[in-house]
Amino acid sequence: MKFDCNSCKNLDMRQNFSLIRRLVAVIVFLILCMELFSKPVQKDTAQQVAKFFFNNKTLLNNAITVKSSYVSLKDSVPTYYVFNFEGGGWVIIAADDVATPILGYSPDGYADESNINSEAKFWLDDISGQIRAELSKQIFKIIHLMRNGRMF
Question: If pLDDT is split at 50, 70 and 90, which confidence band does 135 have?
């Protein structure tokens, strides 16, 4: 089969460029949407993840009971959960899927928010700040798209 270049002359290059530009805009928009919409992690879900993770790390293979838990808030927004287990051990779970789910753990001891060393407090405050900042960026991206986001 021979390719006929005369048939190519009938194509309007501006229409092709416009179509390609729109296609690229749609692809970019879809990528932004996937990145923009992180979801908060509910406490029950975080607890299940913590128990599963702790069970796998400690190889206890028995029922794990949460002794206590607390949530860290940054500007009234949950940033992470801490779960302490009966018999010792704890896991820190991100409260939003914008971050890595498991932030920290120990197979022994208890994480006590009222009795934490300064280095750990600094690290946890920094983690909370990073999670909160990422959520704020997402909000500003959405506002920007709504105001100026003419994609086509």
Answer: confident
